[in-house]
Specification:
By secondary structure, the chain is α/β, with parallel strands linked by helices. Helices cover 40% and strands 25% of the residues. It is globular and about 55 Å long.
Amino acid sequence: MKNKYKDRNDSSIINIRTFHNWIKRQMINQCCQYYEENNIINITLLDLCVGKGGDISKWYDNGIMEVIGFDIDENSIRESKTRFNQIVNELKKKNKPIPKYEFYVMDLSQKNNFEYISNILINKKFNIISCQFAIHYFFKNNDTLLALMNIVGKYISNNGFFIGTTMNGSKLKNLFTKNKIIENKIFKISYISKNTYDVSLGKITDKDHYFVNNVSIEYLVDIEILKKVSKSFNIMFLGITEFNEWYKKYNKNKLSNDEKEFSFLNFSFVFIKN
């Protein structure tokens, strides 16, 4: 594992990763602070695209002891479980409380999987539902977005937060009117069709490249559509924060102009269940 983390630190996009992780931590901190101020305890979280479990420490540091995470990728879920088990072993050595974090392989964009999801979640309600750097996959069409929002709508608690981060579809759309390829030394975004683009981030020499030998096919996120669909589930829009605004509060590793060009294409969003 040490070599793996060394490779990650040697990555050409380590500063972007660090900044984006800081943003996610701030978002979770803010949600938990709200609950603390309102005397709400035993906070639960549902992660819709948990990836490799990179947010586990953020949950635990905020006292979130119960989490369920889904991801479409089996290898990512395997790594999430491995990372969690390593943390559990360390906590046991220090005689600290052990959280209950569960991870499942699941394609949330398919409405046919709703029954399987229901068997896992039963009638749980979550204070925080998180979808970090992944909601663009659900903008493939109306059915995939509705499949996701059905899950959010059913399992979010009253006064629960739906939070996430994503690339700004409006910014990309405007940029694509001028150029069909947006790129610099560390990233390349290529126009495919009206709603579709592909992304490659990092250098090919990175051992922990975002997409080493291929690209990620993604879909433009329209925040107005997300607001409209969310409202139908009584989940109300609180606001977005562009990453360049987050950066004004950031005092760690500074980003280069190339790093800023990519990072500032993103924003965070917050909704709340009425």
